Structures
1.
Amino acid sequence: MTDINTRKRGKKWEYYFEAARIGGKRQRISKGGFSTKAEAMRAGVEAMHEYQNAGTVIVPADISVHDYMEYWLNSYCIPNLKPSTVTNYRKYLRLHVLPVIGKYRLANLSAEQLQALINDMVSAGYSRNTVTGVKGILSNSMNYAVQPLHYIKASPMAFVKIPKGSRSAYKTSQYEREVIEDSIIEQIFERFPKGSSPYLPMLFAYHCGMRLGEAYAVTWDNVDFENKTITINKQLQWDDEQKFWYLTPPKYNSVRTIGIDQFVLDLLKTVKDEQERAKAYYAEYYTTIYYNENEGINEHDGEVIRFVNTYENGGFIQPRTIQHASMAIHKFYPKFTFHALRHTHCTRLLEAGAPIKYVQERLGHKDVKVTLDVYNHLTQKQTEQGNEILDKLFK
């Protein structure tokens, strides 16, 4: 085995060790500038370990859960997953995992500790989605530590379960099932009329059931005026690592072509005409929006992309504008969320008797069970209304 050596050069210390021969010639790895011999030796040990593990600076027996998770994010998640997914993983780890188990050695992590973490989250009232998300991150990261890394022999998450219990044990969003009344809808669009930056996306949510990222990502090539349809084939997401907006397939890859009502059709014809006139008016000062994989949405390089929702001068309107709109709407309707517009669209269709499968495909629900959940909520409400009528009828 190669030895690590140290030597003093002037007032500083240096480590060095022999590396593999290249072209038959001996190679040496060294680095100087250390204040003490011990400091140089410690650095030499780390450097040799890095060299022997082909660049992986990790000692499996000693690495903490905190350091391993950072390594897993950088080596596996970032190259293979969407930036938005990596951002969510970082958030879950920072808020729920690392404060609890980050200090422990990966090799000593037990199923008992991980089960306690999950149980405590349920007891604390976190939503089932959050608990499931944390469990998924832990399972995936531990599996990666087993294969292909061989840092641990078996995953301690193998037998960790989310407690069944009562659904009431989980906290649900107070806005998750909010249906906005017609009078409030009128107020919302009076506050943000045609021409305001969030108008079209909110209209797409209310009239078409689009998600936030989908509504802001609609381009003119998605609109078929002849057949009265819009194809939803992308969404806008923020890359928190590289700080730009990028395009990705819709959630659950729910690409779909949906019908649009006459109001939306006529509106889009008007908007397109207005954009063409604005482009002629601003001439060389009209903003052209480009897209490329390395920079996302930008104004200088890539493929030209023509969003339906733009500023008068052609400028890009980012989804974060809905945050400012929400703050204004909360003054007269505190329960507002963008998702509530989508949920209201779903609910109104089911109330009007639209087939469940039609609604599922229109909204891009991953599973018809999601649509049925809304439908069951409606039937329960209708049953209560029916019982009230019954009581009044025979009182």
Note: The mean pLDDT is 87.
2.
Amino acid sequence: MEKTKRYLIFILGLFVNSLGVSLITKANLGTSPISSIPYVLSLNFPLSLGNFTVIFSLLLIFLQLLILGRNFKAEHVLQIPVSFAFGWFIDICMSLLWFLNPQQYPLQIFYLLVGCLILGIGVYMEMLADVVMLPGESFVRAVVFRWKTEFGLTKVCFDVSMTVIAALLSILFSGALLGVREGTIIAAILVGFIARLIGRKLSFLPKLLFGAQPEPETPSLSDLESTPVCIVVDRQYGSGGHDFAKYLAQKLSFAFYDEEIIQMAAGPSGYSEEYISLKEEKMKNGLFYDFVAQMYTNPSQTPAPEDSIFQTESRIIREAASKENCVIVGRCADVILKDHPKCLKMFLCAPIEARIKRVMKYEQVDEKAARHSILMTDRSRARYYNYYANRVWGLAPNYHLCIDTSTGAPHAEQMVLDMLEHITGYHPHPKEITIP
């Protein structure tokens, strides 16, 4: 039943995709990069855009066969009927839109943008179905597999190559630049961004359509007793969150994870510690990030670097919380471990004046610089948390405890120990160590 749903969604998405391509083409400002070569050929030869789309798709499939060799699997053959269906749908949609021939530039831009929106929806539906790749996407993946190139760069090079070849063919056959215009560039930028944005806004849809993944079995009493205890600490910048979390870990003889997560993520993610440190828990603008990230790849199959880092760190956090008692700082750990049966979630804050004094002391800066650093860091952390956790950063209902650290570490410590015992049933036996 699930597979039937997926194929129905894919076929519908293929038609929506075709409608988007047709509307962009009818705007007469160029077409999408992948359709640019078929479109230019259709302007200079008797065959339709749909027919040339099929021919071009079959060429890409043949090139995949040459590139992959024995690694060309039976599933790749499914691209052949998909190519014929896509070409047929395009011709149907072009016929349905026979009346559309905008002459005024504002109207052309309007139809172009509507076409990009529809095409973005179609791309999202195909990714949601997750059954068959279109030949263009599959060709890029074949190149990446064969020559071990970076997917995002390969995809951008592929789109640029299609556009340049289409422009050269247009000049060669007609002596003018027809079929490749500003609309081609706009479509290349907007479609992936729209698909990614829809994927984030409708993240609940896969579960709704295909059902939830099997829930883990409820732990037995004996299993629950052996489950490690975890404390996750989110914090305002300058509140002393890192120091207090480390102090708690030492006091309780728990493992401590903060910068250690960066070190552990460097290998699996493929990025250096310096790069991860620059990217994690930082986001200037979620919408702009979606816009930039779509240049790497589609939203769900090959993540952009920030997404890859978040996924790697999430896996490390889950593994750490499952194997030992620990304290984990930041990185949306409260959401990542939302199903952990013995997890105390806390948010540490402090008045801005207290934080400014702390930052001035530790960073050796003046008051103005300290205030600016606090505001920028908190804003960046909030955007990161809102983006990946889809929650409001620092909102009290998201946590078991929200503590003002300016009241003093002993007070904060006692609150944590009491709540830890209440929430998890763990009876702490704190060591006597110096409060930072």
Note: Residues 221-424 form a domain with the Rossmann fold fold (CATH 3.40.50.300).
3.
Amino acid sequence: MICQFGFKNFRSYKNETVFDFQAAALSEFKKSLIENESASSLLPVSVIYGPNGGGKSNIIYALSCLISTVVKPIYDLKKNRIQYISQTEVPVESFLFDDCSSGEPTEFNLYFRKNAYEYRYYLALSNSGIESESLFRKKLGGKRTATIFIREKNNIELGASIDKASINKDVNPKMPYLSFLSINYNISVITEVQEWFESCIISDYSNPNYETLIPLIDDKSFNSLLFHMLNDMDIEVTGFHYDKENKELFLTRKINESIYSLPFSNESAGTKKAFVVLPSIIIALKEGRLLIVDELDAKLHPKLLRYIIKLFTNPRINKNHAQLLFTSHDLSTMKNDVFRRDEIWFAALGKDLSSEIYSLYDIRKEDGNRVNNSAAYDKQYLEGRYGADPYLKSMLDWEDQI
């Protein structure tokens, strides 16, 4: 489970930026939280809103960049421990709108939990390779932090848990030491961290070719659940078959005891999107994974988007503590009956063209108090009270010009 993600000098983000999955002390939706007796409660879902070009997707890309940097070498050498994966490879890119940042490394700082431990992984990347890297852990509820390894360029220092003469410290300057250890050794603490990174599912549905990325899984119970969920969404599909000769997928429906097939290419955009995204959701919920999605709402009816959100916030369904992070333009779900205030985030550009993020919980009204959990979040957002959407003001300016 992800606890907190921080980064600096990545794409539109110049300054240190922190995205927090730790739950604030709020009264709403307490039962939806991922609780632990020894540690802080975590959020099952977080959404990022904001105007086009404000930096929403770059938060997703920053986390994707870190994950893919660690995982890609492992998968390239077929040393992975988790079979199913959907991850978007994102290259590191510095903030370019000043004279200093482009020459500085991009920094990532990630806190996550796996089994009985909370880990902190830090990585600083530049065009020349790994500038700095470190991995620490502590027992949930414990106070002592143990060092796994610390790396400063080519100088690597091992912690007590892995400090053995057989461990090689000579590593390619462009490869994370975490990846190197995962590939070459069977060390329990490294394996635990490796499995967490590999378990992350990253999907980019802003990609116009996403409809070709159809995950066909030959598992009767899995497909039964998939069709059950599609039917819950009022998409009456009973099965599918793949024509290998023509390389065409068909979805089947049963009408008056007769079976009819329709080419997937002829299905509606919403049906295509649901059929592509639901397998990742099922896997995340079954295995307690982190699902990261850019533009989850694209081509989905608002009711379907709400349905997906509720799968993660319902503790009876989300028994294995899966988490969902996504970007959205859909304001019909920016409601106090869908999200907690700390689950709603905004991304916006500052005067220096660098992005910043903040949660609805962080916003203070003129009287100094926080936004009430009874407020009409969508209405206040459109009125410009949350500072992340310039469109309404621009429309009013145009009224004066016409």
Note: The first strand starts at residue 2 and ends at 8.
4.
Amino acid sequence: MRLIVGGARQGKTRYAAEKYGSCEAGFHLTVRRWLEDGLDPLAEAERFIRENPDAVVVMDEIGCGIIPLERADRLWREAVGRVGCLLAERAETVERVVCGIPIKIKG
């Protein structure tokens, strides 16, 4: 698996498509759906990794900035951070895209 992270609208999906062809974009939104469905995001991420070892995952970094007022948004932010750590640990490569420029941070 490969993980590509960065802030919103930084060119992650375009970079992933150009370099790898296809990707699981917006993975942070998948984490939100898991929470809304009452699922454990870490368990679901483990399952995803097992079932998709060759996936290219694109995920926004949402942990920077102002802490959300709504409890559900704070829980989502925490879950995205923990899932991101798990994905990064298991990923073959991790890249961060800033202003369309990829920076390899693992692999």
Note: The radius of gyration is 13 Å.
